[in-house]
Task: inverse folding
């Protein structure tokens, strides 16, 4: 079992839809959770970061963490064609100089106009 | 604000040739630096990371090496490229005490 599993996709939705992207993890030691967005042929950019169970909202994006069930989600409301990208979840055990991120494989989202 | 640069953006190299990819970070001091490779369908693979000048940790034994000659410079090298070295190479940095990493624009390498 991989440490981080992410829905493989691809996912195609109409403009305006609510999108739910999910990752599950097996190691309960993970404490810090991130979502990255990667446009085609570009580097990933940090979208959301959270370290506690519950929801964190930023505009149309909501990151949800459930540590008891070991899953995280990213919700996108009123999806736009500009949201078309690959979304990667990432997590780490702890902060500090030697901390490393473990990534999901990513899911490609396409928002149809 | 911090900026991370990578070059070249694209590289086509023959098998057996050497490789040097460069990454520099501006606007921060003593960052942690990372090299990743991203292959289609395989996600991000951490290759090397560095917590300071001359300090390199290797995550995956392979045909590549890394060096950090200056605080904000990270270099990925190979003496002889293999076909399997093709991929999208990403450099990232983070503040020493932070959790989040910030990525550069990447270098697309094709080995023929």
Result:
């Amino acid at each position: 079992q991989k440490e981080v599993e992410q829905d493989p996709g691809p996912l195609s939705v109409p403009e305006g839809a609510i999108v739910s992207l999910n990752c599950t993890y097996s190691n309960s030691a993970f404490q810090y959770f991130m979502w990255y967005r990667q446009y085609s042929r570009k580097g990933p950019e940090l979208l959301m970061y959270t370290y506690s169970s519950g929801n964190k909202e930023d505009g149309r994006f909501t990151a949800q963490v459930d540590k008891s069930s070991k899953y995280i989600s990213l919700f996108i409301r009123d999806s736009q064609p500009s949201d078309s990208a690959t979304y990667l979840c990432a997590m780490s055990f702890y902060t500090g100089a030697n901390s490393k991120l473990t990534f999901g494989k990513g899911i490609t989202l396409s928002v149809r106009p | 604000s911090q900026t991370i640069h990578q070059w070249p953006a694209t590289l086509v190299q023959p098998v057996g040739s050497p490789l040097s990819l460069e990454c520099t970070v501006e606007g921060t001091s003593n960052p942690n630096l990372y090299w990743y490779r991203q292959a289609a369908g395989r996600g991000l693979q951490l290759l090397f990371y560095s917590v300071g000048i001359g300090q390199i940790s290797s995550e995956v034994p392979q045909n590549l090496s890394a060096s950090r000659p200056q605080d904000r410079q990270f270099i990925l090298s190979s003496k002889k490229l293999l076909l399997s070295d093709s991929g999208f190479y990403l450099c990232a940095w983070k503040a020493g005490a932070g959790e989040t990493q910030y990525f550069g624009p990447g270098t697309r390498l094709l080995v023929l």
About this structure: The mean pLDDT of chain B is 93. Chain B touches chain A at residues 6, 32, 41-44, 46, 49, 51, 88, 90, 96-106, 108 (CB under 8 Å). Chain B is about 0% helix and 60% strand.
